[in-house]
Write a structure and sequence with these properties.
alpha/beta, TIM Barrel, 2 domains, eight-stranded parallel β-barrel, 15% strand
């Protein structure tokens, strides 16, 4: 299935689709889910300190019997327990049971303490020491990248960001900036239009394309993201869905298909929908405020 590897700016490459562990929690169930993803053909596992399941991901990797160089592992510095980058990467390596990490990301720009240039120097040192093969960032906007690149000796290999049709217009300048600077983009939450926001404007073009291709709408969304040139990070606990996600690599959308999905996506304001949903989960309190702050939504 042609989810081709994507070349990174440091000479390494990354599988075009990855299995994310964000919502898996920990315990035996998360081990089984990662094992299932590997068994159906995923070769890229994406985890993070914050997800609290690096250890479970590592167990599944070892139990898979796959050779280390056949699996690409991403994890992220999330600032857990206030630990610094140097200590955190050692903890991640220990939990994963690995000698090196393929891609290590700063999870959010505000975690780059005391500032982005200083934090990035620490990331560069990890690469120089051979603890990680590639270094990158997550949820960085253009201005964060501008600060980073102004003093970087090593460019970020990747920037992992939120991307789906309802935020594509908003994210387009960031995509263009990353492309101009040879920074690969990884996309998470690509399936939000069908999993969390059904009934929106993109439903019609997605269904039309899916019917024509004999595919599911979630497969069409993944094919849309692939057409944008990004690496997709997704997940499901259902084996048949994971198999379908891999099969989506075979789908080829026409320029008209992509344009219709883009146009439909631009008709819905993702931030306003997010706020309406947020009102229903007000118990999240301070955490909700933090998310809104990151999305640039002023609640006051």
């Amino acid at each position: 299935m042609p989810w081709d590897r994507v070349q990174l700016n440091d000479g390494h490459s990354i599988p075009g689709i990855g299995f994310g562990t964000w919502k898996l929690g920990n315990g035996r169930g998360s081990i089984d889910q990662v094992d299932q993803a590997l068994s159906v053909g995923f070769s890229h596992i994406d985890t993070a300190q914050f997800y609290a399941n690096e250890e479970q991901a590592g167990i599944a990797i070892r139990e898979s019997g796959l050779a280390r160089n056949d699996i690409f592992v991403t994890t992220k510095y999330s600032g857990v327990d206030g630990l610094d980058i140097e200590t955190s990467v050692q903890n991640s390596l220990m939990k994963l049971g690995l000698r090196y990490i393929d891609l290590y990301l700063i999870h959010f720009p505000w975690l780059a303490q005391p500032d982005i240039p200083t934090a990035w120097k620490k990331m560069e040192a990890l690469k120089d020491q051979g603890l990680v093969k590639s270094i990158g960032v997550s949820n960085f906007e253009v201005y964060h990248l501008e600060i980073l690149l102004a003093s970087a000796k090593i460019k970020p290999a990747a920037n992992q960001i939120l991307l789906h049709p309802y935020v594509y217009a908003q994210q387009a300048p960031l995509l263009e900036y990353c492309a101009a600077n040879n920074i690969a983009v990884e996309a998470y939450s690509v399936l939000i239009p069908v999993t969390s926001l059904p009934g929106g404007p993109v439903d019609a073009p997605l269904k039309s394309v899916a019917d024509r291709l004999g595919a599911s709408v979630d497969q069409v969304l993944l094919a849309w993201a692939k057409a944008k040139g990004v690496v997709v990070v997704t997940m499901s606990t259902k084996k048949y869905r994971l198999e379908g996600y891999l099969a989506a690599g075979d789908l080829v959308l026409t320029p008209d298909d992509i344009a219709r999905i883009d146009e439909a996506g631009a008709k819905q304001n993702f931030a306003s929908v997010f706020l309406r949903r947020l009102a229903l989960v007000a118990l999240a309190g301070g955490a909700a405020l933090g998310v809104c702050g990151y999305l640039g939504i002023d609640l006051i």
